[in-house]
């Protein structure tokens, strides 16, 4: 399913859920744009859209969600905080240690791709403002 089709399915699901809650259909697209949605397609879109688990600190948040064949652990700063690109990020699980080189780092987000046997572990992260950096150790415990 392409990105455009996924977007249409997600919009359709949101409209349907809204109508079920509010008791009235709220049209969000024309009939020509709508596509038939089976339970399997809807489940696939929701699985990608919703995180498996998530957590947050005062200045950061993390989410673990489906990413292709595996899982994506994403960390982003909150407010004025951003990802510290110079910090030696680390993720330790029973499967082993993933060092900084395994992370995809950008100021908006740090991302680590995980396999199913790495969903429980310890994440060492850092977020900064222009004048201050914080280092945190977070326990990640998720099950699919």
Summarize the structure in words:
The chain is α+β, with helices and mostly antiparallel strands and 144 residues long. It folds into 2 domains: 3-48, no CATH class; 51-141, Immunoglobulin-like (Sandwich), CATH 2.60.40. The protein has helices spanning 3-22, 39-49; strands spanning 53-56, 60-67, 70-77, 82-83, 90-93, 96-98, 104-105, 110-114, 120-128, 133-141. The strands form 2 sheets. Strands 1-2-3-8-7 form a 5-stranded antiparallel beta sheet, covered by helices on one side. Strand 1 and strand 2 (60-67) form a beta hairpin. It is globular. The relative contact order is 0.15.
Per-chain topology:
Blueprint: H1 3-22, H2 39-49, E1 53-56, E2 60-67, E3 70-77, E4 82-83, E5 90-93, E6 96-98, E7 104-105, E8 110-114, E9 120-128, E10 133-141
Antiparallel strand pairs: 1-2, 2-3, 3-8, 4-9, 5-6, 5-9, 7-8, 9-10
Helix pairs in contact: 1-2
Strands, total number: 10
Strand count, sense and barrel status of the largest sheet are: 5 strands, antiparallel
| CATH fold description of the largest domain | Immunoglobulin-like
Q: What integer value in Å does the Rg equal?
A: 18 Å
String of helices and strands:
HHEEEEEEEEEE
Low-confidence segments, given as residue ranges, are 18-27
What is the count of distinct domains?
2
The average pLDDT score comes to 80
DSSP helical segment count: 2
Strand content: 35-45%
Helix-strand category: alpha+beta
Known CATH architecture of the largest domain: Sandwich
The CA-CA distance between the termini, in Å, is 22 Å
CATH class type of the largest domain? Mainly Beta
Strand order of the largest sheet: 1-2-3-8-7
Approximate helicity band: 10-25%
Shape: globular
